[in-house]
Amino acid sequence: VTSLPSISIYVHGTRSHGLEGLKYFGPFQPTCEGFYRYEHDTFLPVSSNAEELAQLVNRKVKPGCLTFLAHSRGGLVARFARKRLEKLGYRGHITIITLGTPHQGTPLINNVEQNVALLFRLGRLSGLGLPALTRLDYILSCLTNINLVPEGISFMAEGSHGLKTLNSLDDESGIECWGAKFDPSGYQSGYGLFFEQALSEILSASDNDLVVPTASALGFGTANPVLGCGHSGYFGEPRVRAA
Question: What is the SS3 assignment for the chain?
Answer without folding.
Answer: CCCCCEEEEEECCCCCCHHHHHHHHCCCCCCCCEEEEECCCCCCCHHHHHHHHHHHHHHHCCCCEEEEEEECCHHHHHHHHHHHHHHCCCCCEEEEEEECCCCCCEHHHHCHHHHHHHHHHHHHHCCCCCCCCCHHHHHHHHHCCCCCCCHHHHCCECCCHHHHHHHHHCCCCCEEEECECCCCCCCCCCCCHHHHHHHHHHCCCCCECCCCEHHHHCCCCEECCCECCCCCCHHHCHHHHHC
